[in-house]
Design goal:
By secondary structure, the chain is α+β, with helices and mostly antiparallel strands. The protein has one domain. Helices cover 29% and strands 26% of the residues. The chain has a seven-stranded mixed sheet with strand order 1-2-5-6-9-8-7. α2 crosses α3. The longest helix is centred in the first third of the chain and has 19 residues. The N terminus is likely disordered.
Length: 234
């Protein structure tokens, strides 16, 4: 019975409802965050690049048994010279709605950001990087990340403060961007604020979502971002 269930989990069927596999993949990543953080074999450290690489390796290893429809990869090249931190790609060719994904086509991409940012000059980088275009949400809005996706995700590594504190602070930054208190290279709207935060304090995880307007370089004029946060200082 157990083998049959694993085969069913790993089966990719033709004609999946659009975004179903992407959303299931994001949910899988969210449930794995506490086990990754608490893994005794993981070398601790604040470096964002190392955290992204560690998480990618952990997800790929655990997906083989627990979520075998996809494999995870660190650093997926996007538009121009940019790359997104983690991608999830199908283990075999799959049709999702009218689109076909091969093993070379990410179903969903993830951008990882430290909270707080490593320096004051990059304080708001989860949201925007200004003219440097290094902001997490900003790059999705500009179509620099995930230009062919309607859904993406961001992983927030909370190294100080609480999820509620960061939810409030990020929404304050988006509000300031929307009323031009902060200048930026793309247009922001108050409707792009993070929605209601759902938190599991016993596991040190929290999640919410936001919807953003995009530039004409992306395939759609809006993108849904799922925000997956993990408290690193438990």
């Amino acid at each position: 019975m157990e083998d049959t269930e694993k085969q069913a989990i790993g089966k990719i069927t033709v004609g999946l409802i659009p975004d179903t596999l992407a959303l299931k993949t994001i949910d899988f990543v969210y449930t794995q965050l506490p086990a990754w953080r608490d893994d005794p074999d993981r070398i601790h450290g604040p470096s964002e690049n190392k955290l992204n690489l560690q998480l990618s390796k952990f997800l790929d290893s655990h997906a083989r048994n627990d979520f075998p429809m996809v494999f995870f990869q660190h650093e997926e090249y996007q538009s121009g010279r940019t790359s997104v931190d983690i991608s999830a790609t199908p283990t075999e060719t799959v049709s999702v709605g009218a689109k076909t994904y091969t093993i070379y086509d990410p179903i969903v991409v993830f951008e990882g950001k430290r909270l707080p940012a490593p320096s004051r000059g990059r304080e708001k980088e989860y949201v925007t990087g200004g003219i440097e275009k290094s902001g997490g949400i900003q790059r999705f809005k500009l179509g620099l990340h995930g230009p062919n996706h309607d859904i993406a995700a961001m992983v927030g590594y909370l190294q100080e403060g609480s999820a509620c504190d960061w939810h409030d602070k990020i929404n304050k930054w988006i509000t300031e961007l929307s009323n031009d208190t902060i200048a930026d290279v793309c247009v922001w709207n108050i409707s792009e604020m993070l929605e209601t935060l759902e938190e599991d304090s016993s596991k040190g995880i929290a999640n919410c979502r936001s919807t953003h307007n995009r530039s004409s370089s992306a395939q759609s004029n809006k993108i849904l971002i799922r925000h997956l946060w993990i408290v690193m200082h438990m």
